[in-house]
Amino acid sequence: MTADRQPPVRLRPEIVALAAYAQGKPAAHDAFKLSSNENPFEPIEAVREAIAGSSINRYPDASGRVVRARIAERFGVSEQEVHLGAGSVSILAQLIQAAAAPGDEVVYAWRSFEAYPGLVAVCGATSVTVPIRADGRHDLDAMAAAITDRTRVVIVCSPNNPTGSIVTAQEFERFMQLVPNDVLVLLDEAYIEFVTDPTVVNGRTLTGRYPNLVVLRTFSKAYGLAGLRIGYAVGPEYILNAARSTAIPLSVTEQAQLAAMASLDNEDVLLERVRDLAVLRDEIWSALREQGWDSPKPHGNFIWLETKQFTERAAGIFSEHGIVARALGTDGIRISIGEKESVASLLRASEEVVRSLP
Ligand code: PMP
Questions:
Q1: ipTM, 2 decimals?
Q2: Which of 154, 169, 246, 330 is most buried (most C-beta within 10 Å)?
């Protein structure tokens, strides 16, 4: 098609203007990919076996009943109060679509998960972003104050991607008192398993308490199944039914469902890995602080470095040291906790960055 000719198909202009989700860069073969908060461990044998025995020519069970039953048991809820998606990002999309139409507002902290703005824009709804506090934490009072008659959804991310900060149980319960109960609250707990601070809000203890709260979790991070795409939501049945209505049918594969079951059956091994990653995270954070970084205490499987306008340059330095980090605009760099072997290079790079920043 020549540049001077209008393309014939009329697409929604707001979608044409929308940038596609920018994934963390792939790593060269000798570099460490610490840009997507993935789990560095290879799948456990039980997961490999489950996938090897799966069916490919048949459709999966659309509702993922077996996995839902298992999760329902852990949360002490009914199966109808659990919903699966091809990653929790799919469920976020389904729920935002179910609640927010053009002209409606969706409130969330910023910076937070990079996918939120696009998911809201696709619905024709308006993002209302509330700046993260200087210490990387959600400003829940300001978020509550940002709610208007047009607000349909509020997203709370704990631990927050990319700052790593948590919302405490006390803060969250207080916040829920301030939110009208016709506004859907999504508590995004993608990284909850990495949290060791006992004051953290935990969606598992909140089920059945609020008619407008849905908790989102994933098998991508702690359970290491990012490539298979499976996440889940726990919340009131009437809300999850709406998500089922907006969902693309059959997108949670049988491989993903079997791998999730195998992971839950072998959780001890996986949570041991998570504990090791959390220890490594805390060691790296201490070393960074010794280098002079003022980085918020991390609670997920990643660390946030506020490199501001030097972000691209800083990412370049990490790259020269064989570390692929995630550069987020002119705000900062997010580095995932990965292989033990990546730590020495990571700290050499961070030292060079901190020395070269004005
Ligand atoms: N929520 C947050 C805060 C995330 O960082 C991510 C992944 N980066 C997700 C949700 C989505 O994860 P997935 O779709 O793999 O479950």
A1: 0.99
A2: 154
> Hunting for tokens 């030097």 — which residue is that?
310
Distance 1 CA to ligand 1 centre (A): 37
Residues 274 and 144 in one domain: no
pTM of the predicted model as reported, rounded to 2 decimal places: 0.96
**Mutation test residue for ligand 1: of 91, 110, 116, 188, the one with most atoms within 8 Å of CB:** 188
Q: What is residue 168's DSSP assignment?
A: B
Residue type, 302: F
Residues 163 and 240 in one domain: yes
CB 305 within 8 A of CB 170: no
Q: Is residue 327 part of a domain?
A: yes
Range of the domain at 345: 17-37+268-356
Instruction: Name the phi and psi angles at 22, rounded to 5.
Output: -95, 110
Same domain, 300 and 251: no
My answer on whether 308 and 293 are in the same domain is yes
4-51 pLDDT tens trace: 678 899 999 888 888 888 777 677 778 999 999 999 999 999 999 999
